[in-house]
Amino acid sequence: xxxxxxxxxxxxxxxxxxxxxxxxxxxxxxxxxxxxxxxxxxxxxxxxxxxxxxxxxxxxxxxxxxxxxxxxxxxxxxxxxxxxxxxxxxxxxxxxxxxxxxxxxxxxxxxxxxxxxxxxxxxxxxxxxxxxxxxxxxxxxxxxxxxxxxxxxxxxxxxxxxxxxxxxxxxxxxxxxxxxxxxxxxxxxxxxxxxxxxxxxxxxxxxxxxxxxxxxxxxxxxxxxxxxxxxxxxxxxxxxxxxxxxxxxxxxxxxx
Length: 256
Fold this sequence. Notes:
Layout: E1 12-16, H1 21-32, E2 36-41, H2 44-56, E3 61-65, H3 71-85, E4 90-93, H4 108-136, E5 139-144, H5 157-177, E6 182-189, H6 195-203, H7 207-214, H8 227-234, E7 245-248
Parallel strand pairs: 1-2, 1-4, 2-3, 4-5, 5-6, 6-7
Helix pairs in contact: 1-8, 3-4, 4-5
């Protein structure tokens, strides 16, 4: 059997927020493992650059416009994938955002926006993908959490609540859909070098030094550091793993 367990040939993956950062890295990994990849995001121009990168690696990829804050949009994106490819085997719920403010400064609208984009969208997309996955005999759903699924921060109330919710949502979906051979797991990226964390380093004094000091690996992560776990959770190698929340953090979460 060997590496055949990780072969994604013939499978179709939908990656939300797949036109950059961690989403694009995971899309690239799934494509390198043989999957057909559909990127879903709002920014079509950014998606063009992402598709060119995937095409240069020989990956079969396409783009579908998606605003994850829209229930109709999530349903339409999944329907477009099934219509074009006849199936959807892998859903990566990666779209996300953050608003860094102290709790007392957050407005209701800001709270709702973060929870809607980060948490409710994952539910919307998973719910939309479920019928096709059930009818075809199974599937894989990978939710992207965060170290804020575990830890707290003074300016991360909404973001932390959304990412803690992602972990619990994944566990509930895993239990509900296991009889349909659908595995649902969560990746908890640590401090990886992305646009989101680059902004955090500008806004949070001392963050750069603190992360380096606490991370046993002694460095910030890179988007490519999530490639292996994405392929594993999307493949047959993880068929008996569901409801897990797996840190990819260089040891940050186990260090004191």
